[in-house]
Structure formats: structure tokens, C-alpha cells
Task: structure prediction
Amino acid sequence: MPRHSTATYLYCVVRSTRRPVLARVPAGLPGATAPAAHKVDGTLWLIVADVPLDVYGPSELEPRLRDLDWVSRVALAHEAVVEHFSRSTATIVIPAKLFTMFSTIEKAMDDVAGRRAGIEKVMAQIAGCEEWGIRVTRQPVVAADVETRPASGSAFLQAKKAARDAVAVARAQAAEAAERAFHALARHARDSKQRERRPETGTNPPILEAAFLVKERARGKFKTEARRQAGFCAAAGADLTLTGPWPAYNFIGDPS
Result:
């Protein structure tokens, strides 16, 4: 059997009554062919490209994953293609995970066809919605100055304790404001998810990161509430940043 030199790369699954528009579609992954639409059935399409195995094959890809700059470029290229199709109001898009590949287009189509029921369930959930995200970080806390020449050792220790207590109170207030913001915004969303806290580099990791599945018609109210909560967070010593709209990456799960 001839050895294939390429694999089929899957960007997303699209439901559309018409062939998805490929005009002005972004170039996609480095080294890949132009994104193409393949019909699974009457309304389901795959957006795919051929990628060279000497770059994206398992043995070649593994060491490249340690190059964060390269991975970032690939992720941005993947996202640009998905966003192109998400912007159409006539489509529902399920983004594929980065580096989702199949040996042939037939394998890709068989896989998606076999998961049709799960895909339809996810599409019903995200139909008419878009994803928005928030990231809440603490504002820098400046502890009160302690006298360089305190009247006594006991006064110095008391001043140091007061400074530590002030920082702890400020941190607690910021965390409470972030949690209130999440619950307030969740009331304007069909679904919401908090990202699990994990150790991050840097001196000011986020207090809270969250994603919201928001109906398109509720976008205005959601953004208004986000501005309101940003004000409350600022008063509590935290900065709230709103991002979006995005394809519904955090709400597609594994449609099996």
C-alpha cells in the first residue's frame, strides 16, 4: 500500500443548509492546504485541510509541542479559520480541538457520522449563542509603610501585623467581588463555567477565569452587566477583563 505523506486536519464541524462560504477564509495552519468544506450529509460539513506528516506526524509533532512560539502560531491559525465560519449567522459551528487529525478524509467523515447524535445535542445547546470570557486579577496591594525607627520592638511588630492584615483583607475583598461578578453574569447566560485554579507564573495570577454561553440576543445585557461588575471589582481592588465573542470552545465537551 502507498504510504500517505499527509493527514486530514479537522478545524471544525459546521451545520449549514448551504455549502459554507470559503471566500476570504484564512490560510490556516503553516504548511497546510487551503481549508475546504466536505459534506457529511444534508446539513453537516467538515472544514478540513491536508497537513504534511513530516511536520504534523506524531514523531515530528511531539518535539515541536515544546516550542511554545510555534504552538501559539498554530493555535492562532486554527482559531482564525474557526472564527471565519462562526461569524456566519446561517451556521452552527463546533470547533475541533487543536491537532485533531485523521489518516484520510473518509476516516474523518466516518468518525463524525458515528457521533452524529452527540453532535446534534451539542449544536442544539450552542445554537444562537456565543462564548464570552472574564478574567479577574488583583490590583497591586501596597502595604502601609512601617517606621524605620519604631518607638519600640513591640510597636514595630504591631505595625508589621497591621500591614499583613490589610493585605489579607484586600485580597479577600477582591476574591469576593470576583465571585459575585461570576454569579451576576451567569444569570445572563445559558451556561457558565469557572476555570479550575492552577499555579501560574508571574506575581499576579488571576483570581478567577470563567466562560459564559450567552444568547446572541442577550449580548447587550450581558456586556452591560459586565461593565457594572467591573466597577464593583475595581472598588474592591480587582480588575475585570471581558473578552469575546468566541466560538463555544468551553461548552462543546466531547460530543460522542
